[in-house]
Design goal:
The chain is low in regular secondary structure and about 70 residues long. A two-stranded antiparallel sheet has the order 1-2. The protein is elongated and about 50 Å long.
């Protein structure tokens, strides 16, 4: 059979409007927000939104997957 070699470029964003991208620099480090670090068992949620970049929508129908690595330091 034919092997699909299509890729779909995308970016991960911090906001639902998909204007602020996550990246690889220190400016993308999150720290405790709104005093959440004062309680031991407070859950912190950081939504991540995805957006297909450019004109990458004309691709072969298939299943596409990727792995995103997140490092948590406390």
């Amino acid at each position: 059979g034919i092997t699909n070699t299509d890729t779909i470029p995308y970016k991960l964003c911090k906001d639902s409007g998909r204007l602020n991208s996550w990246g690889y620099t220190g400016t993308n480090v999150l720290t405790c927000q709104i005093g959440a670090c004062t309680a031991v068992s407070v859950t912190q949620e950081f939504p991540v939104y995805g957006r297909v970049v450019g004109t990458a929508l004309n691709k072969t129908p298939d299943r596409y997957a990727d792995t995103v690595t997140v490092t948590v330091t406390y």
